[in-house]
């Protein structure tokens, strides 16, 4: 009986016997071991917990994001237009105050038109008047889809660009540079102290100083397409020679030179001076062309006429 009981009792498979000092395994669900990833890497981090649902079982909505900022390209047009209007009004004020001055030279042959400073003021006022007219036409025709209005607008823009390239920039820079160079050397040669009794200081700077920053601001705020170099140089040479002939004609009629320093130099020096001024005008035209290309990088991407 005892032998039969031993045969029916299941035997433990041969193997390692448990040591009497080994603690017994805890009962219950065995704990899962963290398996290492491939090549011994650490296991991936646990997934983030899901957001808690609200009282009605719906997930909380994220906070609404702020709307993207509006582009500033169209907003920058209004200050430029207002700036052109302000410059135009300043030139009109300067011209009105200058014409209101009763000077002896204004009563002689040629009046104010024999001075290049006055001619330059008229050029700048007409140029900025065309700029303001172009801005108004651009605002009225934008989005209309009228081909005829767009064609007329292109012609107006071409006139504006031509006038800046040929007259406004070279003549304006020439007046400012030559006046202050001669003024620093000897003011009696170009602007005698007697004129201080007629022309106030602010008006003098309005005629001979602010012209340069105004024209540079215009070049920076709006792209201008220059004409071909040959036609541009021909136009500025025609203006220079025409004004020199006009000055000589005034001297022939009145017997006096428009500018006092021409009285103190000989005929050869006058010819050299007139030739140098013509060359300087051509150089200023090329300088304006290079400056316009540098500001707007026209060789890489020429702006369209609609960007004015």
From TrEMBL:
Which segments show compositional bias classed as Basic residues? 13-34
User: Which UniProt key words apply to this protein?
Assistant: Membrane, Transmembrane, Transmembrane helix
Q: Which superkingdom does the taxonomy of this entry point to? A: Eukaryota
* Pfam families xref list: Far-17a_AIG1
Subcellular compartments: Endomembrane system
Output compositional bias ranges, type Basic and acidic residues. 1-10
Q: Which gene codes for it?
A: AIG1
Q: Which InterPro entries match?
A: ADTRP_AIG1 (IPR006838)
What is the predominant subcellular site recorded for this chain? membrane
- Please write the reaction equations for the catalytic activity of this protein: 12-(9Z-hexadecenoyloxy)-octadecanoate + H2O = 12-hydroxyoctadecanoate + (9Z)-hexadecenoate + H(+); 9-(9Z-octadecenoyloxy)-octadecanoate + H2O = 9-hydroxy-octadecanoate + (9Z)-octadecenoate + H(+); 12-octadecanoyloxy-octadecanoate + H2O = 12-hydroxyoctadecanoate + octadecanoate + H(+); 13-(9Z-octadecenoyloxy)-octadecanoate + H2O = 13-hydroxy-octadecanoate + (9Z)-octadecenoate + H(+)
Similarity remark = Belongs to the AIG1 family.
- What this protein is called in its record is Androgen induced 1
User: Where is the segment annotated Disordered?
Assistant: 1-70
- Record's bilayer topology term: Multi-pass membrane protein
